[in-house]
Amino acid sequence: MKKFLLSACLAGENVRYDGGNTRIECETFRKLVESGLAVLVCPEVDAGLSAPRRPCEIRGEGGGGSVLDGKSEVINDEGQNLTEQFVKGAYMSLEKALENGCSVALLKHRSPSCGSTLIYDGSFSGKKIEGKGVAGELLARNGIRLFSEETLEEAIKYIEEE
Prior knowledge:
It contains six helices and eight strands, in the order βαβαβαβαβββαβα. It is an alpha/beta fold. It has one domain (4-160). The strands form three sheets. A four-stranded parallel beta sheet has the order 2-1-5-8, sandwiched between helices. Strands 3-4 form a two-stranded antiparallel ribbon. Strand 1 (4-7), helix 1 (27-34) and strand 2 form a beta-alpha-beta unit. The protein is globular. The N and C termini lie close together (5 Å).
């Protein structure tokens, strides 16, 4: 089985912006986490942001890739620019993945850090757009295969492949 990077909130750690978690309730998944194959990350907390914290979104077109390329920024709902922390957290997640031989990541859907296919549009209106979060994009650029809780069954099959 493959070691995998896992958003800590999906494992039940209270690291989300609201101080909560989004624990996945699935026996097979629980066994994978308990097996020691999961390497937990929260790019935002790892980079020094608190839990709870103000909600953040990517402002500008291009999602996490645009943030990494210096063309967009990550702001919170009070207008504070947190781009530096999000980029730092993304690189910390990549470092953990590489150090632990993780070729796959199971990340929180719609997160400005961990999103793998959908993120919020930067208006704090709840509108979702196609795109990756900052860490999701950096991991993908470095050959890490991305999954989310929305594709959990596919992720489990991929992780369990020898």
